[in-house]
Design a protein that fits this description.
Elements lengths: L1 H30 L4 H4 L9 H49 L4 H27 L4 H17 L1 H16 L7 E4 L2 E8 L3 E5 L5 E5 H6 L3 E2 L5 E3 L2 E5 L5 H14 L10 E7 L4 E6 L1 E3 L3 H18 L24
Antiparallel strand pairs: 1-2, 1-5, 2-3, 3-4, 6-10, 7-9, 8-9
Helix pairs in contact: 1-3, 3-4, 8-9
């Protein structure tokens, strides 16, 4: 209440000063001295009720002409702001129910509110009689300039919004994006943060994430371990296959469905190669891969089977070396 009374008092003083200034100007104009109203002081003795009434009539005329427009503009602004806030809250609620990312929901809520509020302000100004075409042109030019200056950042921003909507990757997934491989730690509007297997923090712009191939090693829940095991040509193929299958059967991390595959894939230069392809959970991939590599080698050696390695036999033929005459 105190603040309202102070504001009303200030408005009263302003109106009073305007009336007095108008009266003084009118008096100076009537006396024929154009500088008296501005250069001289306020002549209270020359102030009359008729002149004050004339000034008040002019004020009433202005209020009658523009008062309703100003009042309408204020009403448009207040109601429009309320509607903008209501619609933005409804949009946020709908997006939240759709289980979208909280960060994206808040961003869309704020952006929609600001856009609707700009429209409301322009409508209020147009109701008063202000030409809003120039404002729209200025906003368009400013938006174009900002877009050209920040086109790289805006591309990352647009890619970030698409990532939050379509969710090709999630926090905790092991992925390969933008030439980098690691576990996703954070997805923001502009960048994606990865943690590599050797604990290096990698920040990838979202434009590179959405602009290239995305390899998600976690999202399907299971992965196939691909291994190649070679044995000597003189070893028993059936026995070697049985030994490898026994090693796979003893590992509880290997899934029964799909069934693991053990088959001869190639007759190499120095070995007969088996492909070993068991399926495991994504979280067990590397542990299973390393353990199987060691366990298969040990099992083959325990059963008298050998894993050949490239070697070359050199035969020297006896005889004299040819010499050349100088």
């Amino acid at each position: 209440m105190r603040g309202q009374r102070t504001t009303a008092t200030r408005v009263g003083w302003i109106v009073f000063a305007a009336v007095m200034l108008a009266a003084t100007t009118a008096s100076a104009a009537a006396s024929g001295d154009p500088n008296e109203g501005t250069a001289g002081g306020l002549d209270i003795s020359d102030f009359s009720v008729s002149k004050a009434q004339e000034v008040l009539n002019q004020l009433y005329a202005y209020l009658a002409q523009y008062g309703l427009k100003i009042l309408g503009a204020v009403i448009i602004f207040l109601v429009g702001r309320w509607v903008a806030r209501l619609l933005s809250n409804l949009a946020a609620s709908a997006l939240t129910k759709a289980k979208m990312e909280l960060m994206l929901v808040q961003f869309i809520k704020d952006l929609s509110y600001i856009a609707m509020l700009i429209f409301v302000v322009l409508a209020a100004l147009a109701n008063v009689g202000v030409q809003t075409t120039s404002f729209i042109a200025v906003l368009g030019a400013a938006g174009l300039a900002v877009g050209l200056a920040l086109q790289g950042g805006l591309a990352n921003f647009a890619a970030g919004v698409l990532m939050l909507i379509f969710k090709p990757i999630h926090v905790g997934d092991f992925v390969e994006v933008g030439g980098a491989k690691g576990t996703v730690k954070e997805i923001s509007i502009f960048t994606t943060v990865l943690s590599s297997p050797d604990n290096v923090r990698i920040i990838v712009p979202n434009g590179q994430v959405m602009g290239g191939n995305i390899s998600n090693f976690t999202i399907n829940g299971t992965r196939r371990v691909d291994m190649v095991i070679g044995i000597s040509y003189g070893d028993d193929l059936k026995k070697a296959k049985k030994v490898i299958e026994d090693v796979l059967a003893k590992d509880e991390r290997i899934l029964p469905d799909p069934a693991p595959l053990v088959a001869v894939s190639e007759l190499g230069d120095s070995s007969v190669n088996f492909v070993v392809r068991p399926w495991v959970k994504s979280t067990d991939y590397w542990g299973t891969y390393f353990d199987l590599t060691a366990n298969i080698k040990i099992a083959l050696e325990d059963n008298g089977l050998t894993i050949p390695f490239p070697q070359r036999d050199v035969y020297v033929k006896e005889g004299k070396l040819a010499t050349t005459k100088k």
